Amino acid sequence: MSRTNNYLVSAVSLLIGMAVTGQAVASNGYFAIGNGTKSKGMGGVGIALPQDTFASANNPAGGVFVGDRFDIGVNALKTQAEETDTFGGVVTFNEKLGDKLLVIPHLGYNGMLDQHSSIGVSLYANDGLYSEYPLNELTLKQGFANFSYAHRIGERSSLGGSILVAVQEYSVENLPLSSTDTATGLGLKLGWQGYVGGGVSLGATWQPTIKMTESSDFTSAFGFNGEYDIPSTYGAGIAWNHKGFTIAFDYQRINYSDVAALGNSTTLPVGQAGLGWNSINVFKLGIQYEFNNLAIRAGFNHGDNPVPENTLDTNGLIPAFIQNHLTAGLTAKFFQSSELNLALIYGLENTVSGASIVSPGETIESTQSQYAVEISYGVRF
Fold first, then answer.
1. Angle at CA of residue 368, ends 127 and 282, nearest 5°
2. Is residue 198 over pLDDT 90?
């Protein structure tokens, strides 16, 4: 291998590591509401609206409309979660499950090969899971390297594909079976985007399940049967732009129930059980107005709750119940080719309660909310 290739492999490994070390907490399940600061400021939309180098993470076909560009940024995220268990009207357990500020870096590059095709690489992370409670701490970190190619089909549409290198780390501390384990996987993401006239663009994307290597220490700690794969997703989007005003809508499906460690019923025997999660639908709506050297944004993101009420015995300590997010953002352009981007995200408080299966007569109630700030710098070449 040449020295240049060695440097490239080392750099990619380091950057994936940076993304994975950004432990965070749940949004749409444990998926981020979107990728890229501009997308997050608009509720996570991006399937039909490429705006930066993370277009390939939302829809690989969008890279050819982005041009030559580099972005780097960081997301600071905090989830407040609390669980209360009651039996006969008496509180038997009440604890905060986490109130820690967590940081996730990201960066991306997009380059035009010619006027018809582009390549790109982006490094980012899902929001993952983080929970701490008496004598126990649970962390799921999940990062991606996205290598994309997009090609124009005529002047108005494009096809694109990405090769995804996924790395995830599980950590369970202070249990009798405390462990830290890492898994890797190779995946694919495909997309289409087209402009249909009148300022309207459409997009569609599909990502099959990413098969991860087995993590025996983690699965044995929880009694899971099967690898903790990354669930498949698909989605579609539409965007309309007129005189600096843009409105966009995305639909996304996340198939959590298809993953053995997530979807199998918790009523199954130990060694065959999963968390009992359902697959979810996510709806994203965003608006943007650009004037002079500024752009302002707002958005709303709604996702189903993946956790059924009858699985709170297993899931009550996992912060994954937030369903609604309000977002805002802005971009300030300077030096002709540079810009500073900001996104604010508030996950509205949500409370889920259900009867305990393990302890009949006991009721479990979990309340969660979320705050995040993301800032990034972008430059066009």
1. 55
2. yes
* 288 pLDDT higher than 60: yes
Distance CA 41, CA 289 (A): 12
Tokens 């993953």 belong to residue: 259
The pLDDT of residue 6 is: 46
Paired tokens of 141: 């970190």
Residues 183-202, mean pLDDT to the nearest whole number: 95
Check the CA dihedral 42-45-51-55 and report its sign.
Answer: positive
- Residue by residue, what is the 3-state secondary structure of the chain? CCHHHHHHHHHHHHHHHHHHCCCCCCCECCECCCCCHHHHHCCCCCCCCCCCCCHHHHCHHHHHHCCCEEEEEEEEEEEEEEEEEEECCEEEEEEEEECCEEEEEEEEEEEEEECCEEEEEEEEECCCEEEEECCEEEEEEEEEEEEEEEEEECCCEEEEEEEEEEEEEEEEECCCCCEEEEEEEEEEEEEEEEEEECCEEEEEEEECCECECCCHHHHHHHCECCCCCECCEEEEEEEEEECCEEEEEEEEEECHHHCHHHHCCCCCCCCCECCCCCCEEEEEEEEEEEECCEEEEEEEEEECCCCCHHHHHHHCCCCCCCCEEEEEEEEEEECCCEEEEEEEEEEEEEEEEEECCCCCCEEEEEEEEEEEEEEEEEEEC
Q: What pLDDT, on the 0 to 100 scale, is given for residue 135?
A: 66
Name, in order, each residue with C-beta under 8 angstroms of 328's C-beta and a sequence gap of 6 or more: 41, 296, 297, 298, 299, 343, 344
Residue 111 has pLDDT above 70, yes or no: yes
17: phi then psi, degrees, rounded to nearest 5: -60, -40
Q: What is the pTM of this model?
A: 0.88
Asked if residue 171 has pLDDT above 90, the reply is: no
**Which pair of tokens denotes residue 129?**
């899971």
Measure the CA–CA gap between 214 and 218, rounded to whole angstroms.
9
Q: What integer is the mean pLDDT of 338-362? A: 88
